[in-house]
Records
---
Amino acid sequence: MKIIEIPVLEEDNTYRFMIQLRLETFIAKVYRSRNARSVYSFREYLKKVLKWPVYEQIFKADVLKNNA
């Protein structure tokens, strides 16, 4: 079993503790799961459980302006 797309946050990031707890919850959920897969995406899990503005703050990507 492999869990991919785990965000790495700085020590002083306000979301660090929340992500750590969500990751522990996700790992426990995966272990209890009956239908085992080989790869799980933590990012997809966060998309489902977090509010969109929080998700964007964690996975903020630089948006290119004017397609540059």
---
Amino acid sequence: MAQSFPSLLLHLGPEEGEKQAAFLELRGALRNAYGQDLEEHSFYAFETPPDRVVDILQNGSLFGSASLVRYRAVEQLKRKEDILPLVRYAENPSKTSVLLLESSEVSLHKDVKDAVGSRHTKIFWEMFESQKKGWLSGYFRRHDARIDPEALELLLELVENNTLDLRQEADRLMAFFGKQITLEHVDQYIYHAREESIFTLFDAILAEDLDHALDIAVKLLMTMDAVQVVLGIAWQVDRLFSLQTLRAGGVPQGKLFEEQARRSGQRIAGKRLQKSLLGGISRYSLEDCRALRVLTGDTDALLRSVPATLHGGIVQQYLYSVISRKGRWNVAAPFARRPWEFPGASGFRGV
């Protein structure tokens, strides 16, 4: 294979948009070089073991003169014996293949990084908040569209911090509402046009609708990691807690969002979002919110310490504890006495 195409590449980091662009650039260059003779494969580490990927690389392209293998989610490779086939392959790689390893993480098993080498490793970092706002407004301008400042802030709250998701959501908004995007458009999009999200899941939590929350969680877990789901809820729980704290401090309900924006520097935009949070305030007390914060933090830690096969059940139990027990049964510590329990209260024993 031509010298301009390294046999192994490692792309790391959470910025999926730039990572996808780098893959498309590599694929385009290989297609220009080999045309129809390029054979392409794509695998995920949690589905396809490394020895299977190495077999394909070593056997070469069956029908073409070159091959491109994209191997994603390699952060799942944690055992030395699983990684060994890749290490051995890196010592004598195929001259007619390119292996692109990808991960949304930055920290990987040392053997994987050493096999590729720092020269062919690139990290794609998330944008800073200031960069994200400029990138998104610029994207609308490049498509001859405009978005109101408040609408831009609300949209940024909804989207993961990478340009791939930002681009997809911006395209959908322009398809639905045309070239001028307002706060009302984004607000409407959240509840009617957008697919299930952390926001719709948290709405179900605030409405104490366990069945709906479980249905949404099942859909989200098909495309999202369980840790991401719980972290998204944690951010919303912190919001609810801050509003309840202001309310307990004597801030009138009509001034809660104004005072919250003044203190945090981040405005909660969108009438529907505000209405949903106000409904949550009436259902979840300040003590409830404290319990939910502890529960959510413990569940996050639990998810990071057990196999992914257990994540679905843990998320279901977490949602049950949030909605039906107001956080007062902890999936991560079912027999523990928590700091927020009232003195003399008996500990909860789980389901």
